[in-house]
Amino acid sequence: MSKLFSPIRVGPYELKHRVVMPPLTRLRADPDDTASAMMAEHYKQRASDGGLIIVESAMISVEARAYDGAPGLYRDEHVAGYRRIADGVHSKGGVVIAQLAHNGRTSHVEMNGGVPPLGPSIVPLDAQALTPTGWKPVSPGREATVDDIKRVIDDFRAAARRAFDADIDGVEIHAANGYLLDSFLQDGTNRRTDRYGGAVENRARILIETVEAIGSLRGFDRVGVRLSPSGEWNSIHDSDPETTFRRVAELLDPYGLAYLHVIEPRVKGDDDKVDSLDHPPVASAFLRNHFSGPIIAAGGFRDAAGAEETLQRGDADLIAFGRWFTSNPDLPERLRRGLPLTKYDRSAFWGGDGRAYVDFLPWQGAEASVA
Question: Which stretches make up the NADH:flavin oxidoreductase/NADH oxidase N-terminal domain (predicted)?
Answer without folding.
Answer: 3-341
